[in-house]
Amino acid sequence: MENKKEQVESHQSVVVMRHGDRIDNFEPLWVTTTDRPWDPPLVEKGRVRAFCTGRKLRTYLGFPIHRVFVSPFIRCVQTASEVVSALCAVDDDPNATISDEVSIDASKIKVSVEYGLCEMLNREAIRNDYAPRDGNFGFNISEIEAALPAGTVDHSVERVYKELPEWEETVAGARSRYEQIIKALADKYPSENLLLVTHGEGVGVAVSAFLKGATVYEVDYCAFAELRRPISNKEQAKTAGDFEVLTNPGQTGIGYLPGSTTNDDKVENVQTEPLSQTWSK
């Protein structure tokens, strides 16, 4: 009888991370000075937090990140830029706190923009008077890619979501999208470990969708969830198992209640209110 354990050749890891500190939470008048109030950039503190989190991932994870996928919102793009620079740093100066202070080996990681990782496109996450009236969020992919570290962008990648969801998607619809995009990207690259840079709700879903009974109540800036699943190679085809959540409550900036994991528990107690009602996304 064939030993099923012998079929498992490796594991795939997926890290789902929230962006850093956004400017409108620190400078409330910023929204009056911009044509894009729905797309705030990071403050300097957010860039530093993202870079330092990237350095933490480099030493904490114990495995390499091969690909990074990022929401098109500028706060996520800037976060990804800092994290990738930390992950790819050459002779990393321990005193460096931002990407401008290091040189990188751009061949280590490939980065792509993925619409499916975008913010919830509804008034729970974006104030209705801040959203574009015509529903066009005006993302220019060439400009976004230019903001990522030179040489890291993989232009050959075909996006899973060809365009943004329509305004106004439901909270349930957005949560379903986050779960679907995590699975879709992992299935597309089963031999690679991925980092997905997204928004607070997406990180919450990374826990609640793959840990039965979990209730997520907090996701800090640059918090991340680590998922892992077995990859089997049978008859020259890769088969993936189910994801498990390796991140413990409070360990990496995510607050959640694990809930019950017994077979008798028939209720999947995911968060019932959007996380944006607890903190700004």
Automatic annotation (TrEMBL):
Q: What ranges does the record list as Polar residues composition bias? A: 269-281
Give the protein's recorded name.
Phosphoglycerate mutase family protein
Domain of life where this protein originates: Eukaryota
Q: Where is this region: Disordered?
A: 254-281
Which Gene3D superfamilies does the entry link to?
A: Phosphoglycerate mutase-like
Q: List the source organism.
A: Tripterygium wilfordii
A Pfam family annotated for this chain is: His_Phos_1
Instruction: Output the lineage of the source organism.
Output: Eukaryota, Viridiplantae, Streptophyta, Embryophyta, Tracheophyta
Q: Which InterPro entries match?
A: His_Pase_superF_clade-1, His_PPase_superfam, Phosphatase_SH3-domain, PRIB5
